[in-house]
Design a protein that fits this description.
Protein name: DUF7992 domain-containing protein
Number of strands: 2
Structural class: mainly alpha
Number of domains: 1
Number of helices: 4
Largest sheet: 2 strands, antiparallel
Strand content: 5-15%
Pfam families: DUF7992
Shape: globular
Strand order of the largest sheet: 1-2
Length: 151
Amino acid sequence: MGLHVETPDPPELEEVDPNEYEDAEIVGETDYRRNELEEFLREGAWEEAFAQWSKDADLSEKGFQIIMDLEMIQQFDFFWDSFAERVGYHAPGIPEDWKEREYHPDIDSWGTVSGINAGITELGQVVCDVLKDEYIDWEGDYDAPDDLPDF
């Protein structure tokens, strides 16, 4: 299908402990390297990832406009998970009580909510993949003990 919209500005990454997210799978303390990731996003990773995502996005322009109206792009969080040597992310989403809260006037069905939540999650994964594959060359923080036997 594809989505033909202008690329929005990349998110500004704030200091948040990813362990506090409900779906967190981060192990231990680490340097989340948000400053470097944010710089990569500004240097082209965001634009590249957004172009990849939007080319095949299964999201309507109406759905994308809702994302922009709700400033969901700025709510993304990307961080380095040194234990797993991957870029982690937390994608924003429309809450289950959208109807009761009158969250946005153009949200009229669970299908719209599901499409937006799925689309924004897919965008987050594409951004992580682009960052890891094309921008990051960091080594993990794990150091093997010096007293390991030679085999």
